[in-house]
């Protein structure tokens, strides 16, 4: 087997690599290596700052995420903890908030539908 070519491997460290906050409101930012996908689609890391929350949205496909660190609470009071692996089914409507901040590893195949009326 041949070694992987340098141009075929991208490696960054989430502790030192800057996250992109350009398309995320309310204290969130994304680190995504696959530039062939829209920001926030496919596999990415999602960081939420303490006290922040996501906009209300509907999932257009199943969303899967792993809580790497921190706390996350959905609008209905359900609390996710560090280490929780979560699947929210297509069509799910929710928004989430964090008291102390969190880091999530997320996979979502299609963009979510923003339900925020502002």
Give a written overview of the molecule.
With 118 residues, the chain is mainly beta. It contains no helices and eleven strands. It has strands at residues 28-31, 42-48, 57-58, 63-70, 72-74, 79-80, 85-88, 93-94, 96-97, 102-108, 113-114. The protein has a five-stranded antiparallel beta sheet, with no helix packed on it. It has a three-stranded antiparallel beta sheet with strand order 8-3-11, with no helix packed on it. A hairpin with a 4-residue loop joins strand 5 (72-74) and strand 6 (79-80).
Mean pLDDT: 92
Strand content: 35-45%
- The unreliable regions are none
Biggest sheet, open or closed, and with what strands and sense?
5 strands, antiparallel
In angstroms, what is the radius of gyration? 15 Å
User: What is the chain-wise order of helices and strands?
Assistant: EEEEEEEEEEE
How many strand units?
11
Q: How many helices in DSSP terms?
A: 0
CATH topology of one domain: Jelly Rolls
Spatially, the strands of the biggest sheet line up as 1-2-10-4-7
Q: CATH homologous superfamily of one domain - what is it? A: Jelly Rolls
Structural class computed from helices and strand pairing: mainly beta
Which second-level CATH architecture of one domain applies? Answer: Sandwich
Please estimate the helix content. Answer: under 10%
